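RETRY 2/3 - previous attempt timed out on the joint model. Re-submitting the same 226-residue input unchanged.
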Amino acid sequence: DSGVTQTPKHLITATGQRVTLRCSPRSGDLSVYWYQQSLDQGLQFLIQYYNGEERAKGNILERFSAQQFPDLHSELNLSSLELGDSALYFCASSADTGANQPQHFGDGTRLSIL
Amino acid sequence: ILNVEQSPQSLHVQEGDSTNFTCSFPSSNFYALHWYRWETAKSPEALFVMTLNGDEKKKGRISATLNTKEGYSYLYIKGSQPEDSATYLCAFITNTGNQFYFGTGTSLTVIP
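RETRY 2/3 succeeded.
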């Protein structure tokens, strides 16, 4: 158990809809990262938050947004969903902002767009 | 888009064999290199974080080396066991914008 909690585990919705994925980091971790894993693709870095502030941005679409709240949990919002957004979305956390810290991954949210 | 390549893509070894695989990354803008182990139906688990050229890290039968000047890292598993069966991922982190780039992994199957 990594200590990182993601909800929901599975989500099925239709094109054009909006969903919110939630992540609670490991106790004491200040950084939260979001990744997307599509079919036959590696993990794609979307965005990092550190102590409530955006720290780094990867290949995140404009239809996607994220935030980290004062209690350090994070939400990833996906809107105007398309079939290609079907993927496994992982959240990870680390103790600090630096990449010299290992990341601890949640079990992921599997998003299916019908 | 920056390329992080892992080879081989998949590997089958007999129990007791030692094995190694490679993560190749750009030799510029290096900040850190992470290795993760990802078992089926679980989430990735951190193995090593490497930041200095020439770094060598070890955890039990698994070890890793890092060459930032030529842009590669090796992961070694000594005396493979069936429980080592997993996908091994590397992640390259840049010193510009703190970007994370994962390879697609090496899938290891250890045959009893």
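Chain A has a mean pLDDT of 94. Closing ticket.
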